[in-house]
Amino acid sequence: MKISPSATLQNLLRHYPSGGQFFLEALQNAEDTDRATHFCALLDLSTHPIEQIRPQQSVWRRRLQGPAILFYDNGGFRDKDWKSLQQIYNSSKKHSPSEVGKYGMGSRSFFHIGDILQIVSGSKYAILDPDERLSENGEYGEKLDFLADTFDGQRFVDAFPDECSPFHGLGHTMQEALNGTIIRVPLRAQQWAAESSFMPEAFTLERASHIFEDFAKAFSGPMALFLCRVSRLELFVRKEKLLRVASLELRPEPALPGKELVKVKEFLKKFETVEQLQEQLRQGTPTPEVLDIVRMEKITSPTDDKGQDFEEEVKEAKEEVKEAKEEVERAKKEVKEAKASGRTKESEVGGSSSRWLRFGRFFSLEEVSSPPEEVPFVCLALPLDGPCEGLAFAHLPLSIKTGLPVHVHAGFALEDNRRGMWRHAEDTDGSHRSWADWNEHIIGKVVPEVYADALTYLAQHEVMADADVFGLWPRLEAEKDGFQVVNKQLVALLANRLVLRSAGCSKMPVAPQEACFLETHTTHLEQLRADLQNLCEKAGRKVVNPPQHVVELLVHYKAIEKFDCLDAVRDILRLGSEEMPQELLSQILLALLHWAGKSFNSTQLEVLAELLRKVEWVPTPSGHVTIDQAFDPVAPLPDLHVVQQG
């Protein structure tokens, strides 16, 4: 088995993160099989028996029996996967547009954890061994068929049962072929870490537990939102018993025919390379669009393999389990309160459910001079149960917060460590410059276009309440460096779309550019807002009243007009008496006077005085009269009309 030498691994690992990124690499490997629907990760804290193992290189074989991290998927290896594993540096994924792991790091990242990888798939058992601790000179590993190969007339599991025992944690005994793949990575212990030629650094049990806990926390987030095949994810810890600490399941809801996210993957499989894909797109090949809804069901309550509460065991395996029950109770309380208040959003701890609209499409390459080997595709995930803290995705989440209330997946040109993307900077040149141009084009033009289309769709279809749709609009105060350009372009696109609704009785759709927002400057005027908006609509204004953060966004980018209550009164005084109840008019003008007494300048006071002289609004015993009729400045005090108190 030929794989890249340790020197290559040393260079790769030096530039690649050593945290929980390898969990995501394992998940993307499962997705890339295009067959796997189930993914598991297991932190095995057990030490397994060492008596009945193969005698060759027995010292190192015994070392493999200690704590390890295991990954499982039900996709299974095929010939091309074994070949890819053999040539771990020149990954066959590198130019495939339909696969997530296009950078080919994948299994190589596991060498941060340990010096040797153990793989079981079908009836094959392989070991990747860059430092040749177990394999013969120049082979860098070994591979056998544990069902067909015999050892002194015995099957592998009968001859060396202890060597098979570490795989029992995920339910495989090697008595039959495995329907899927298990990759096991024994932790690099402190006592022999210095012997590693490519990573002489221990991966301690404490470090493994900490990274696993961090991944378990992230597990309740949106990591699987843009996966097409893997729909069930589980995390386990094993000490004396196998304990499930978290699970997540994606359940697609009925979508418009041909609009499912999986159709994009099926389309991309038609092309062997990204270059072929891009050439076909330039020729106008029709592409699929995405408009579907997926429900994420999450369980983060610790259970044993029989599904029953098992707190005491978890305390030994994880430091935070003491709080698990309290989190579940808090989650139940939050869900109960949410339902009682009419909200649909549920907590993200304990047992919870959330619904997401996925909205995306391919984009034109006409405005991109030198596109990198990336798929020109953008897709948003919009939470239908309330806003989220938006992240950038390249199928799987990146450590980049966008400041948007939605998640953004795109074919970003990523840095080698997959933690950042190329952006414009003073020292960016060459290929890096073209990669940065690509990302700037996606963020500055394509994302706003897709975002605007998604908000327009939600505003015009009864997918969620208007108030919840507004929660998906970005906030000025949440803008992040590099993504604030989205807001400006988004507002420009929405300015002439029917994404708002009249605040008057008609409730008609209105575009921001033709709408206006009524400013009420006092409590009294705010209490009369609904009446003022109805009257202004009758007078011809298209008044809207979206949430404050939407108003601030539209005003900041000059996409909506604001007017105050003095302007509103000017409008509504043109209405006939049948449309303007006298009692309501009196209340409005008295509230206006209250505001005038606090903050009007001389010009505003003159305008108000002129209005008040023309309108019969002062209530008297004999009816409503103008202010001049109500008060005669030259009459003696006893002769003044008695003004009724409003």
Q: Characteristics of this structure?
A:
disordered C terminus; 33% helix; three-stranded parallel sheet; alpha+beta; 646 residues; 15-stranded mixed sheet
Topology:
Blueprint: H1 6-14, H2 21-32, E1 38-44, H3 58-63, E2 68-73, H4 79-86, E3 117-122, E4 124-128, E5 141-145, E6 150-151, E7 154-155, H5 156-159, H6 161-164, E8 178-186, H7 205-219, E9 232-238, E10 242-252, H8 262-268, H9 274-282, E11 290-299, E12 303-304, H10 311-317, H11 324-340, E13 351-362, E14 377-383, E15 391-394, E16 396-401, E17 407-410, H12 430-460, H13 466-470, H14 484-494, E18 500-501, E19 509-510, E20 516-519, H15 523-527, H16 529-538, E21 543-544, H17 548-556, E22 561-564, H18 565-572, H19 582-599, H20 602-614, E23 618-620, E24 623-625, H21 627-630
Parallel strand pairs: 1-9, 15-17, 20-21, 20-22
Antiparallel strand pairs: 1-2, 2-8, 3-4, 3-8, 4-5, 6-7, 9-10, 10-11, 10-12, 11-13, 13-14, 14-17, 15-16, 18-19, 23-24
Helix pairs in contact: 12-14, 16-18
Describe this structure in words.
- By secondary structure, the protein is of the alpha+beta class.
- The chain has 21 helices and 24 strands.
- It has a 15-stranded mixed sheet that branches. A 3-stranded parallel sheet has the order 21-20-22. It has a two-stranded antiparallel ribbon with strand order 6-7.
- The chain is elongated.
- The model is unreliable at 306-325, 334-350 and 636-646 (pLDDT under 50).
